[in-house]
Amino acid sequence: MRRNYKQILLTGIFILQFIIVKAQAQQMLKGVIFEEGTKSRLGNVPVYNKRTGYTNTSNNFGLFDILAQEGDTLQISMDGYINKELRVSNLNDLIIYLRVASNQLKEVKITSQSLLQNLKENRAAFRDKGIFYGGKPSAGLLSPLGGSPLTFLYESFSQDGKRARRLDKFIARESDYTEVASRFNKEKIKMLVPVKEEDMEEFKAAYWPKNEEIRKWSDYDLHNYIRKSFEEFKKTKGNM
Known about the structure:
Number of helices: 8
Distance between the termini: 57 Å
Helix content: 40-55%
CATH superfamily of the largest domain: Immunoglobulins
Largest sheet: 4 strands, antiparallel
Low-confidence stretches: 18-24, 103-108
Mean pLDDT: 79
Radius of gyration: 28 Å
CATH topology of the largest domain: Immunoglobulin-like
Shape: elongated
Strand order of the largest sheet: 3-2-5-6
Number of strands: 7
Structural class: alpha+beta
Order of helices and strands: HEEEEEEEHHHHHHH
Number of domains: 3
CATH architecture of the largest domain: Sandwich
């Protein structure tokens, strides 16, 4: 009986020592995130521990904390800034500076917005041809009291009316594409996951988000979606 008691006591001491060592090895690491070259603190920036898979975000003052231990690798990424990785060499408070990205990400937005602007200018040109309702006039125009039956008939059945409707559909599709592409694009994906160049278009096509998803997702949600999608994509490619 006494022997069993000693064994239980020794086992308990061993477990307690293990817990203490584990707790000492992994602690709450704190830090602050600034925009490089300025004193601006960056809020809502995801900080991802690659060992644990845990992510936390900085608050409105750029402050964050995350469980970590020496040797861990933290990944910090945010739209409009260059992705940054750092190795935890000690558990002292961190000061992190994110550099504003080059025009790579901005070019995606500028190019798409320029195209949309040109399309909208073309749509405005239809007004000179008597198309004021995009080829989709209201039935109220048929009213003899204050209506314009000729305008209704012209917009509904003329070639210019048909062209205006086709243009509006194209603008709507392009606007939807631009909204997604401004956040889900090659540069953003490469910042977060190691997709091979030859697999990039296949990955984008397979996991292209819906507009309503992009509208409600924060950067944190989008980054998680890209990482999870890549893990699924690797399985379909035989772990690449």
